[in-house]
Amino acid sequence: MDKSRCDQLLDYYNGHLEGEDKQNFEKHLQECEACLSEWTEWQMLTSDLPYLSEEKEPPAGMKDRVLAAVFADQEENQPKAAPIRNMADKENKPVKEASKPWISGLLAAALTLSLAGNAYLFLEKNKQEAALEKTAETFKTITLAPHQSKSSGVASMVKDNGNMKLIVQTHNLNPVKGKEAYQVWLIEGDKKYRAGTFTPDGKGNGAVVFDVNYEGTHNWEAVAVSHEPTAASKEPKGNIVLLSEL
Amino acid sequence: MGTISDFELYERIQKDDREALELLYERYEKLLYSFAFKILQQKELSEDAVQEVFIKIWRNKRTYSKEKGKFSSWMLTVTRNACIDLLRKRSKTETELSDENLQIPASENVEKTVEWREEREQLQSAISTLSEEQKKMVELFYFKGESQQKISESCGVPLGTVKGRIRLALQHLRKKYNEGRDKYGQEPM
């Protein structure tokens, strides 16, 4: 046993040993009773020192920000917002009329591209749509009614290859600030199920595709879009801006 | 109905119970943030450190076990490690010692966290019995995470004596701290 390693205990404690040095010390720690005993002693001797810290008030909104980051890995399993930038030319058209090809385009893109991160989809009406029309079946399309807002939108339930998807497109949403986000909710009775989160583009336009794969059978009654303080809200906390019965 | 223990919350977190993590967060937010701030002296970085701790708790399941001691101590160790990592990542080595760090503050907020406040007061009282050199060494070692080499240079003491000196200081601190607790009729640690 290399006794000279005993001198490295403090540097190991503070994470200054790397690679081979670290491995060798860890091996040493298992063999050297004196070091193991001293290691325990250092931990005991330092265990109260954190309480020397003076009380500091955490910054406003820290909890929401931290929890949103903590739970973000689970959010990543859901498709993310895909704001559409070429929607401006459609804004003046009646929503219903514009919705079908647009939904097809969006779904085509969602199915053929990986919706990773906050990737923007630059939708083009292309050949994919024709192919998609054959596989995707639109169950229902509704116009989302503004709720104390000037926003508008359309939501569709679409079945593609046996998988149910909810497609939401929005217009004129107020911009988000900081950690704010929009969330889409599927409503069944008193229960609200978070379908997903998105942030609109600079013009308030957003479009997203979410998988609807909740356990059990559901009789969805309505779709709502709310403006949330963070992406982590488990229940709508912010204002509902769009709402319609399915 | 008693309060849910930290360990019970931790067990619930193993089953992806978000509410349990939120409860644990609320319970420790201020302590962990204050501790991180003590090390990092910067609001944003301190928030980042706390965030890393909770991300670790949430994503890396089963990293804590009762053999590792009290859950709160383990969380504080994880917090310190996160802070020290962040300190090292900072491009500028802003680790100059603030001589005020181990001094007893002239005034401070007396808040509801009575236990913590009392503990801090006793610790500060114990710290006040250390020599200036000892205070500086404890500060550099524990709150700055410095290497023995750097501590040796900063304090002008031989490298081979650094560990022994800090250990002696900490033992002295612990002795005085326990004496203080005895005086106040509390159980020594």
TrEMBL record, chain B:
One annotated GO molecular function: DNA binding
Family: Belongs to the sigma-70 factor family. ECF subfamily.
Taxonomic lineage: Bacteria, Bacillati, Bacillota, Bacilli, Bacillales
Protein source organism: Fictibacillus aquaticus
Endpoints of the signal sequence: none
SUPFAM superfamilies: Sigma2 domain of RNA polymerase sigma factors, Sigma3 and sigma4 domains of RNA polymerase sigma factors
Gene Ontology annotations of biological process type: DNA-templated transcription initiation
Positions of the RNA polymerase sigma-70 region domain: 24-92
Keywords, comma-separated and alphabetical: Sigma factor, Transcription, Transcription regulation
Location of the RNA polymerase sigma factor 70 region 4 type domain: 120-173
Cited Pfam families: Sigma70_r2 (PF04542), Sigma70_r4_2 (PF08281)
Protein name: RNA polymerase subunit sigma-70
